[in-house]
Design brief:
0% strand; mainly alpha; Growth Hormone, Chain: A; 418 residues
Length: 418
């Protein structure tokens, strides 16, 4: 009788675990919908400029500092994630996110807004961001790339949902009260969503199916110190930085490219951003699935090949070409989403899952580097040449370099290579 009971309980537990892990993916999507509101910050810029009489350059400071704080906090958050687990780390991050937004609403000037929204809320997102990713990576050893990509789709699609809501609140209440109301909402929502986050029991990883290409190429588990001694880390960091540089630069110039180069109205160029956000979101599960099927190494090669093709078409035939504008920028936004799925999948595949939180926190600093360099590069090229078309020859060069580094460097690290 005990044997029969045990035989029945194991399948039941397995079925329950498989259902639970998909629920955790859904929770991760909702968490990222909140955190991804940063991509809707442009909605605040004009009202802030009018409120304080500041320039467009100044109104962009909170966004830039947010991205830098987000990426810079990830290594710290990764260490805490490995020590405290996803629930406590996400709770702390949620408090920082909500508190940062609330304090932003009390800011008397752009400097205070940059500190509260940029530094505090951005750092809070850095704490929260890795938690649902780690949960998905641990619960889905058999579909890691797909699960992580689905979890992250919320971040990419967030502007489709949050931008209209924020815009309506600004119209009704003004920017300051909007920051406060959204902050209170995020504080409550992120607290509730953090509570179910947990890692699977130790036996789950061994019992789950791992018969797929990503797991067949799984490396030995490496500590952060061991990871930093491998060539694979520097290859991944560089390719991730290039992918983010290209993607974030495309996001930053989408509307002005549409008006200046293609000849769109300001309204149509702004509306096109919503369409491109869909591709940013879809790129995450799509390339997560692809990383599972053909390994992150070859998924990276596919991504860079698409970037090279899109940039080449835009530089050659982009002037006044509406159709090519939509095709080219859809591909570029898609591949920003692609790299935000490839990088976490590659981190787990190349360096293991035992120290994943700290390892991915270090890898994610490439996002911050790519964001800053992309903004600076696009501005310099536009100012020196008078056209955004000049952005794309360097993009083509970077994509070509990325293909070579990815195919050469993103190989599994075996114990003898440590």
């Amino acid at each position: 009788m005990p044997v029969a009971t045990e035989m029945k309980s194991k399948p039941a537990a397995s079925v329950q675990g498989k259902a639970w892990r998909w629920l955790l993916v859904g929770i991760g999507i909702l968490i990222n919908l909140c955190c991804g509101t940063v991509y809707a910050f442009s909605v605040f810029r004009k009202p802030i400029e009018e409120l304080w009489g500041i320039s467009a350059t100044a109104s962009g400071f909170p966004f830039m500092v947010f991205l830098a704080s987000f990426a810079g906090t990830m290594p710290i958050a990764g260490a805490l994630l490995d020590r405290w687990g996803p629930r406590r780390t996400a709770l702390i991050g949620g408090m920082l996110v909500g508190g940062g937004w609330i304090l932003a609403g009390l800011s008397p000037n752009i400097a205070a807004l940059t500190l509260t929204y940029g530094l505090i809320a951005g750092g809070g997102v850095g704490f929260v961001y890795g938690c649902p990713i780690l949960v998905a990576a641990r619960w889905f050893p058999d579909k890691r790339g797909l699960a992580v990509g689905l979890t992250l789709i919320g971040f990419g699609l967030s502007p489709l949902i949050t931008a209209p809501v924020v815009n309506a609140l600004i119209t009704a209440l003004g920017p300051s009260l909007t920051f406060i109301y959204v902050g209170v909402a995020f504080l409550g929502i992120l607290t509730v969503l953090s509570l179910p986050l947990r890692l699977p029991p130790p036996e789950w990883y061994n019992s789950a199916s791992t018969n797929h290409v990503g797991q067949r190429q799984q490396s030995a588990d490496l500590t952060p110190r061991e990871m930093l001694k491998t060539g694979a880390f520097y290859a991944l960091w560089t390719t991730f930085a290039i992918g983010c540089l290209v993607g974030l630069m495309a996001i930053g110039i989408t509307a002005p490219f549409g008006t200046e180069v293609v000849g769109l109205s300001a309204g149509l160029a702004a509306a096109s951003v919503s369409l491109f956000a869909v591709f940013n979101g879809v790129g995450r599960p799509l390339f997560g699935w692809l990383a599972d099927r053909i390994t992150p190494r070859y998924a990276a090669g596919v991504s860079y090949g698409l970037i090279l093709l899109a940039a080449g078409m835009l530089v050659l035939w982009g002037q006044g070409n509406l159709a090519l504008y939509f095709v080219g920028f859809s591909v570029l936004w898609l591949n920003l989403g692609a790299w935000l799925a490839i990088a976490p999948a590659a981190t787990a595949t190349l360096f293991g899952v035992t120290h994943y939180g700290r390892n991915y926190g270090i890898v994610y600093t490439a996002y911050g580097a790519g964001a800053i360099l992309g903004m600076i590069l696009s501005g310099i090229l536009r100012d020196s040449t008078g056209t955004y078309l000049s952005v794309f020859p360097p993009v083509m060069l970077l994509a070509g370099v990325g293909i070579l580094i990815a195919l050469w460097g993103l190989r599994p690290v075996h114990p003898a290579q440590r």
